[in-house]
Amino acid sequence: MTTPAEATEAAHHAGHHGYISDKDRYLARLRRIEGQARGIHRMVEEEKYCIDILTQVSALTSALRGVALGLLDDHMKHCVVDAAQIGGDEAEAKMKEASDAIARLVRS
């Protein structure tokens, strides 16, 4: 019989992450972000006005931050909650992961 911790670990390794239900939405957002990055590249190549380029860089940064916050929210709602219900080392590890991810986002 599989323990809850083993089930969570198996799901983690099988690729069942919290964002999976929104995978298509994330992929669409990332495609738009790729397009924005290419647009900025093109603006530099074409020597567009620096403030216009900076405006686009700001929009790209905001879009990436939105993806990051969505992924963090999904991680907290799924991976961290599941681990917290199990408790022990798994819960501690997931809480540390989330805390470290938040710290990285705050620094950026």
UniProtKB/TrEMBL annotation:
Alphabetized Gene3D superfamilies for the sequence: Metal-sensitive repressor, helix protomer
Keywords in alphabetical order: Copper
Family membership: Belongs to the CsoR family.
Top-level division of the source organism's lineage: Bacteria
The keyword DNA-binding is assigned to this record: no
Glycosyltransferase as UniProt keyword: no
Record-given protein name: Metal-sensitive transcriptional regulator
Pfam families referenced in this protein's UniProt entry, alphabetically: Trns_repr_metal (PF02583)
